[in-house]
Each structure stands twice: as structure tokens, then as C-alpha cells.
Amino acid sequence: MRDLIVTLIVFGSVPFIFRSPAIGILMWSWLAYMNAHRACWGFARSMPFSLIIALSLLLSLLISKEDKKIPWTRETTMLAIFILWMLITTIFALNPEGAWEQWNKIWKIQLITFLTMMVIKDQRRIYLLVATIAASLGFYGVKGGIFTILTAGSYHVWGPDGTVIGGNNEIGLALIMTIPLIRYLQMHSKPIWLKNGCLAAMILCVVAVLGTQSRGALLGLVAMGTFLVMKGKNRFAYSILAIFGGLTLYMFMPDSWHERMGTIKSYDQDGSAMGRINAWGFAINLAMSRLLGGGFETFDPYLFKIYAPNPDDYHDAHSIYFEILGEHGFIGLAIYLTLALFTWRSAARIAKEANHYPELKPLADLMRMIQVSLVGYAVSGAFLGMAYFDLYYALISIVVMSGYVVRRYATNTDMTENSQATISESTVSTPGRSGSFVRKPIRPG
User: Model-level pTM?
Assistant: First the structure.
């Protein structure tokens, strides 16, 4: 039954994609983040749904008469430079076969990122995109939160099997980035049932993050939650609520959870933590030896024998920063961090500019919530190798698109005001019936 439903939704959306490329972006996002086909057990599980949607989207773009120009900003320029640099490091990669296989995934993610910026160019579409992403990932947060409550936190929460967010650490990071997006939806939802539903989803997502029993996710959750409170209007009330809720959840979790989280303090006695430090040392040594880094999939047991401080202790990168450093060198890391800095600063600027216009208030709130998501990604990602996670680049595209909407709205508003001012000032004196002079406007043209 699931297979049939998912198949009907995908193929049923194709005619609508031809009518509007934005539908294609929304469908791609639904498949990319919710991975609905992975919940199927029959033929739909292996169907190339993403390819079908992608081809439909490209065809729709070819026939669409919409404006399809990419908003070239410092973020899009830096992202293009980053893509080019990744291609160069792939050409000279130490693990060519693995590198080209990974590149084949990365360029598709970046293609969709740029297509998104070409299509989602108004406030309504931005809202629908955020809602699609939040609902898709929030589904696993609600599911995982209920599971954690029913099992008293005795088992790990996992993501959808066979996906990039399938692991407990990965789904924890994804949910941390999703919670602020759900908060944005709650802030701008009118029906009370929807507001309460978003609140319940946020709480269950927090419970699910704790249920992952991921130490990196816990640190990211604390950082994200702290910044979320700081971005709220009533900081004192939210602080009290966060402390009370945090203590309640802390006491609810089982002893096994407390024991695992307690190893954060004694990382030097934990084999997993020391393995990560060894992997970070490997990345530094490799970047010091090669300007281009090792290319994709360079965290390999064979290369550990050459560059790792402890050649026998092989581990994955377990950090977005050291993953980029090891695979693309110091130049790649500098580009990556510059892109993050540009995105952060632009979100702050756009929020400030959007506040001048009541119609754009939702975009101002969205930019603040994206900043909260970026904080969670930056902290939790320091302990998890998800430097190429789709959601991070989707947030960058949303910031770029929001800036485009604000600039266009401000320009149109200023032109309208200037036009009205010109008309009101362009008057001449003509004699009235009584011989007095009256003011009559000069009609343009």
C-alpha cells in the first residue's frame, strides 16, 4: 500500500511540475529529506523517484517563462568557487575511484541548490519550501520523540535506513537544524491547532535528539537552544521554560544515557573520542603535506598508515571542519568557512532590512531562525562528518532568495514612493473662476 501511495504522489506531481518548476523543487525536497520511498517495502523502495522529479524539473525550466536568473551574491559566488575547488581536488584525489563516486553525489546536491535559487523567488514559495523541509524532517522527530517516551529512553533513535541521516548522530544533527524552522512556522501559523501542533513537534524533536544518545547532538542542542532563547522576544520567560524543560528531560532519561553523556568530560579515556582526535590529526598532517588535500573519500585505512599520528587507529572524519580540511586542504577550508560567514552576516542584514516593511516581517523571523539552525550545525557538526549535508546548502539558498525578495520589494516600494512624490510636486498655477489661482497636477506624459 505504501509503495502505491508514494508512486501515485510522485507520478501525479509531474503534470504540476510542468506547470510550475517550484513544485519540482518542493517534490525534490520532500524526497530528499523525508525519504518516503525508504519507508516502503516493495517496488517503490528502489524506484528512481529523485531522477524522475529532477528530469521533470529540468524540462519544466526549459519551457517555463518565469525569470530563471540566478541571484549572484557573495554567497552564490563563493559557493561556485567551492564547487570548482572540489572538482580540482577530485581530479588530483588520492583515492580516485572513491572521490569520483562522491563527486557524482555532490554536484547533484549543488545543482539542486542553484536550481532552487532560480525558482524560489517570492515569499510564499520560500514559506512552502521551509514548510516542506520542516515537515519532512520533523516527521522523524515526532516519531523518534514518541518512541523515546514510550521506551523511557532505553534505545537509540535512528533515522531512515540507507540514507545520509540514517545514523543516530546524523538524525540528531538534522533535527537540531529543523527545530528552528518549525519554530518559524509556529510564529506565522494562524490556526491555533497548527500553532499547538508545531509546539508539540518541537518538543518531540528535542526528546528525539536526546533519544539519539549522541554526545555531539547534545552539545549542538544546548547551543541551538541557547541561541533560540536569545532570538526570542521574551527571553526571561523562555529561559525559565527552557531550564525547567531541560531539567525535566534530563531526569527522565535512563542511567545508560547519563553514563554515555558523562564521557564528554572524560574524553581522554574514551576510545571513540580519541579515535576522532587521531582522525583530526590525520587531516592536519595530510593538509600540511598536500595543498589540495586528499580529495573526497580520503579518510581511508591505507592513507591513515601514512598520515595519521596513530596509523592503526582508523576513524572517519567525525567533523565537518576536519572533513573539509583533509579532503580539500586549507584553501578548501578557508572557502568553506568564508561561505558560512557570508551566509551568517547576510541573514543578519536581511533580517534588519526586512523589519522595515510589515509585509516582510516573516522573512525577518526566518533569517533569525536560520541563524539558530546554523549555530546548531556549526556546533554539532564539529563532531560529525556531514559537511555536504543537503539541508545546510538549502539554508544558504533560502538566505540568498530572501535577500532577493527584500531587495526587489524595497526597490519597488522606493520607486512607487518617488513616483507619488513626483506627481504631487509637479503642479502648475492656473487662474480659477474668481480670478484666484489654484493648483492643478500635471499629468505624466
Answer: 0.88
